[in-house]
Structure formats: structure tokens, C-alpha cells
Amino acid sequence: MDMEKIIKIDDDLKRNEELYKLFDEEKRLKSRTGLVEKITTQREIDNLINSDSKVLDVGAGTGVYTIYLASKVKEVTAFEPSTSNFNTLKLKAKDFLNIKAYNKSSFDLKDLEENYFDLVLIFGPMYHLSNEKDRKDVLSQAKRVCKDGGHILIAYINHDMVLISESINYNINIFSSSAYISEKQRLIDRPFVFFKVNEARKMIEDKGIEIKEIIASDGFAEVLSKQLEEMTEESFNNYLDWHLSHCKCPETLGATNHLLFVCKNKK
User: Fold this and answer.
1) What is the pTM of this model?
2) What is the pLDDT of residues 34-55, one digit of tens each?
3) Which of 112, 115, 185, 200 is most buried, most CB within 10 Å of its CB?
4) What is the three-state SS of 46-108?
């Protein structure tokens, strides 16, 4: 199925299933652009875990963070709805006794034990849940299964910066394309779902979840994607150090394609 047909699928899970037959998340996070996001996210994860931690990874994709965590924590439970992504995750997870991987979605969190996890990762759902009720439900469930005083990390795609990076890298006329609703100054939420910083912030705070930090997880990496790939190793490593020292500055939040909300759970 091509992207034009995928965009027309209204059911979020069915659209997600078809999308990841085409979209290679594994490849994205191996690029230097993706590496910036991954390293930034891993640094935040490392600050919140220890060898006794129990972690839930919702929307685990091909297991980038699940596998990273397996050697660092007591156990990892991973939910991934896309069959293609799950098959890759399952293959990777077979060498780790402390990984429980399920071909399930954020709609299945109600089956998990209350007050059980020290850290909950919500890295996929907000990219794909087009219904507001479903987004509220996943946050409620994350709050329920996370321990009091535990942490919840939530990732969003930043609406306004996507318009800029798409204009630079892919479609110079995106503002006159079918993907853009000029009357609303909004992208359509297909195949991904997009949020402004304040929209994401309000969503989390309305569920009584405390936001500790908001991080520009990939910063300027998307608009610099071509340049990052052409940099020498020394230049890229220096850029990465620069990014890590600036990604928590408020002024970078409008310039990143991906936002990471570091939250503390309170019952």
C-alpha cells in the first residue's frame, strides 16, 4: 500500500500497521539525525533508572530503547502494535530473559498491574492517536501503572517545526500542499499526529502529571540532516556535545521536530 492510501485510513491501528510496512524506524534512528534524538533520550532514561527498575515501553517500535534498557534494569515490558516492528523487536528480545514483549497497543494497558513500574515510556502513542479521548486514556493508564514518585517520559512530534523541516528537506511547497490546511494554519494529522508545545503541555498537566522538564530531543538535527551526515566524526561529536548542552534551553523547543516531556508521577 502506498502512502496516499495509508493517509486515508481512519482507524489508527490499521493506519499504523500499514505505515510501518513502509516506514523504517530502525534506519531512521541509525542516521546521525536519529542518533541525536536517541542519545538525548537515553541520557534522560539513564538519570531515572537503576538495576532494580521495572520499565514499561509503550509503542516500543523495533526495540531501540527496550534492548538498551535490558542490560540496565530488572525487567522491561514492551508493547508494540505494528506487526513488522514487533517481529524485529521479538527477534532482538529473545536473548534477554528480562524482556516481556507483546504485540499489543496502548489500548491494552488496562491489563497491566497498578502501581508497578518505576518508569513508563510513551514514545509511540502520541505520534499515532488521532482521537483526543484515546490520548487522555493512555496518559491515565500510564499514571495508573506507574508507581507514585515514578517517572513517565512522553514524546511528541512538534507541529510547527515539522512545517519548516519539511519545507527545507522534502517539499518546498508544503504550505500549498494537501497536507496543509491554510485556514487553520495546521498540518493534517496524517500519517502522524502533531502538537504544538503548549498543546502537549496542557494535555499532560490536565491529567495531573507533573512536568519536570521539556527537552528538544533532536534539536536542529532535522534541518541539518544533510550537513550532519557530511560532517567529520570530530565535527559531529562536537555538534552532539553542543546539542546536549542546549537541548533543555526554552528557546530550542520551537526548533526541534521531537519533544520529550520528562514527568514525575503523583497519585
Assistant:
1) 0.96
2) 999 999 999 999 999 999 999 9
3) 200
4) HCCCCCCCEEEEECCCCCHHHHHHHCCCCEEEEECCCHHHHHHHHHHHCCCCCEEEECCCHHH
